[in-house]
């Protein structure tokens, strides 16, 4: 399985993290889960590779 896109830099990851945190706050407690599912599906569609998305799920579940 190879990466489709180049990895983000640390500043890029910080920008994404800040945008995600702000969006979760905007969605509110009641809608944050729905927002995250919608975001995940949009990103899965952008990846266009179910195996890569499944790998991302497994990696995100580690060390929770």
From TrEMBL:
<protein>
    <submittedName>
        <fullName>DUF2783 domain-containing protein</fullName>
    </submittedName>
</protein>
């Amino acid at each position: 399985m190879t990466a489709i896109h180049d990895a983000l830099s640390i500043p890029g990851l910080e920008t994404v993290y800040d945008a995600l945190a702000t969006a979760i706050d905007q969605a509110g407690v009641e809608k944050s889960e729905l927002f995250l599912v919608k975001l995940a599906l949009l990103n899965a569609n952008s990846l266009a590779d179910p195996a890569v998305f499944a790998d991302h799920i497994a990696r995100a579940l580690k060390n929770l």
